[in-house]
Design brief:
Number of strands: 0
Pfam families: MFS_1
Organism: Ammonicoccus fulvus
Number of helices: 16
CATH architecture: Up-down Bundle
Subcellular location: Cell membrane
Membrane topology: Multi-pass membrane protein
Keywords: Membrane, Transmembrane, Transmembrane helix
CATH topology: Growth Hormone, Chain: A
CATH superfamily: MFS general substrate transporter like domains
Length: 426
């Protein structure tokens, strides 16, 4: 197969594999299962959603380590064992007794092993295979993650209705086995040296020789600090809505069936956000795209809190659309402002903040509900924070590593204003 076609072949299979990410295996399902688990075990929403926070917190701690391992060992050696352990941990949830400490322990361990299926490895893989149209490639891969978020509530809802909520975890494990483990075992891999040459590499042949900044150098740039802060804010603001979405809607008198459908629609909106955002990143300066993306959840919060007609459903889709754009933006801007030399490590730190957001966000929304009986306080906190970071994005400035420069083997650019060069890479 021609190497250019193989590059997009890898993007296609990455899109399939990422449908079984932690978002579709754990986070979206818990939005559906939050109420039934709380009711059966007699736990408060803070206690039940706290399981997601523990899961995300342990994932946040481990994510930078996995990023460094990806830089050192490549995709397959990290992805395969992680998927296997994740599926085992997920299936074990179906047999746990109603002991909170035991659920907290298993969810914490699941957070550690599932870091390898949080999307980071396959997004990194797409970035290694495609350079000039990297925004589109990342956007396409991201549609798989969003599709998984749309599919998993349907799987969970159907299994829960007919067989009980415990069976849902078995169904999710089987889903992950088919769409994530098999491609990881037999298809997904990094480009070989001779393929890298055909993709545009001229002199660099190892992961350590890729052009870009080191971790130490990146921390001295304003761009990375803006990325760090904005990533944490948006990571806290939107996942909290995702985890509590079904409860948010049913509290307003919307039926469980419509609430689950709304969660699936939010997943489809996420898919649209990833594809549209990925396309726009190749034609519009990324910080400007990010400003629009950050505005969507603010509008979504207003609609979710209104309780008027179909506005909460539209608000859920606004939040979903923004969730589609944010992960693409983080990965794309990391590659363009910081390069590929330490991409796994730097993106791993940012991904750790995304995971930390899943620990903080749901807890804040739960605390808002438990203390005031509504989620409005959380809407105000995160809405204001999103507007503040949105105003900081124009200060990112020009890309350091432009298309055909961040590709492996291209010449190192001037840190302040890298010239654009021609390249025959994908």
């Amino acid at each position: 197969m021609d190497v250019q076609r193989r590059a997009w072949w890898m993007v296609s299979w990455s899109t399939i594999a990422i449908t079984a990410s932690v978002a579709s295996l754990v986070l979206s399902p818990f939005s559906v299962l939050l109420g039934p688990i709380s009711q059966e075990f007699g736990w408060s929403r803070s206690q039940t959603s706290g399981l997601v926070s523990i899961f995300a917190l342990t994932a946040a701690v481990v994510t930078p380590v996995v990023g460094r391992l990806l830089d050192k060992h490549g995709t397959r050696k990290i992805l395969v064992p992680g998927v296997i352990l994740t599926l085992i941990g997920l299936a074990s949830l179906s047999i746990l007794p109603p002991q909170l400490w035991l659920w907290m322990t298993v969810m914490g361990l699941l957070g550690v092993v599932s870091v390898t299926v949080n999307g980071m490895p396959v997004v990194r893989l797409a970035a290694r295979w495609v350079d000039r149209r990297r925004g589109l490639a990342i956007g396409i891969v991201g549609t798989g993650l969003a599709l998984g978020q749309a599919i998993s509530p349907v799987i969970v809802g159907g299994l829960m209705t007919h067989y009980g909520w415990r069976t849902s975890f078995i169904g999710l494990a089987v889903f992950g086995l088919i769409v994530a483990l098999l491609p990881a075992l037999f298809v997904l891999r990094d480009p070989r040296p001779e393929e890298s040459v055909k993709l545009g590499e001229t002199t660099h042949h190892t992961e350590e020789e890729l052009p870009g900044l080191t971790v130490k150098e990146a921390f001295k740039t304003r761009q990375y600090w803006i990325l760090l802060i904005s990533t944490l804010v948006i990571a806290c603001a939107m996942p909290g809505v995702l985890v509590h979405l079904v409860s948010i809607l049913t509290d307003q008198g919307i039926s469980m069936e419509r609430a689950v459908a709304a969660l699936s629609l939010a997943g489809l909106a996420t898919m649209a956000g990833r594809l549209i955002g990925g396309f726009l990143l190749d034609v519009i300066h990324a910080p400007y795209v990010a400003m629009v993306v950050f505005l969507f959840p603010v509008v979504g919060f207003l609609m979710l809190g209104s309780g008027m007609g179909i506005l909460p459903l539209i608000g859920a889709m606004c939040v979903g659309f923004a969730m589609g754009g944010e992960a693409d933006l983080v990965s794309y801007m990391t590659s363009r402002y910081l390069g590929m030399k330490s991409f796994g490590s730097l993106y791993g730190i940012l991904f750790a903040l995304l995971a930390l957001g899943y620990a903080i966000g749901p807890a804040v929304y739960a605390a808002s509900y438990d203390s005031t009986g509504s989620y409005h306080t959380a809407y105000w906190i995160f809405g204001i924070a999103l507007i503040v970071v949105m105003l900081a994005l124009p200060f990112m400035g020009k890309y350091r590593f432009r298309p055909a420069v961040a590709v492996p083997g291209a010449h190192e650019p001037d840190p302040e204003d890298a010239p654009t060069t021609q390249n025959t890479g994908a």
